[in-house]
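User: Fold this; tokens only.

Assistant: Input:
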Amino acid sequence: MHRFRVYLAVWVCVFFAAVASATIFGRVQGIVHDPQHRPIQGAHVALKAQDSDWKQEQDSKDSGEFEFNAVPVGNYTVTVTQQGFQTMMQAVVVQSDTSPVMHFELAISGVNQTAVVSGEAVTAAAETVTPTTLLSRQQIQDSPGADQTNSLAMITDNVPGAYMVHDQLHLRGGHQVSWLVDGVPVPNTNIASNVGPQFDPKDIDYIEVQRGSYEAGYGDRTYGVFNVLPRTGFERDRECDVTVSYGEYHRATTKSTAEATRNGWPITAA
């Protein structure tokens, strides 16, 4: 009996460790070097989200390497600047539990020379074998009918192999899929239920869709994993109107309050 309890405790620890591995963060790393592939130390590296004000900055190490940890899922732009070299930018897509590796070969700046480069930034591919589709809030808004409530058009219009049959979302031929919110699984013990319509497309910032060869920590629904990242509110205008009223101390009419509205919602602090 004692041995059985030990085995049970070990199994529970392993199970929760696997579930905890599901995350909404990734890591961006890379190296900065000159045209002769010699590392550049002290180059300023800035990682900026394309859809919000989220930003991180650091300088490259002696080996020319840089690394940003705990980066939320989304689309980003990496900018590298260093005196004596031309500024370089690259776009990168960060997916959960991935670590894209980027290479920046900085060209030497010429004396009194200006170079104008036009075109789209190169997107670094994430190092993963799992077919993944990342949909942003802007993509959902640009797709006709994709932002309607109780509709899964945002998925069927953008994810390969996704379709609706008998009011059930099917992916790769089956409807046993898992739904997560910020990397946390949504409890669902009924294989015939459709959790997807419960998410309003207007409340989604990003949705990450994995279509196979995903980690065991995501569960046993083998046809697909949908990881929903809700909107945080930080992408809205940070403006407010404040009204303050106050009185004298030691009187019954004393009052000190502050009222404000932020993004249309009232805020009151006494």
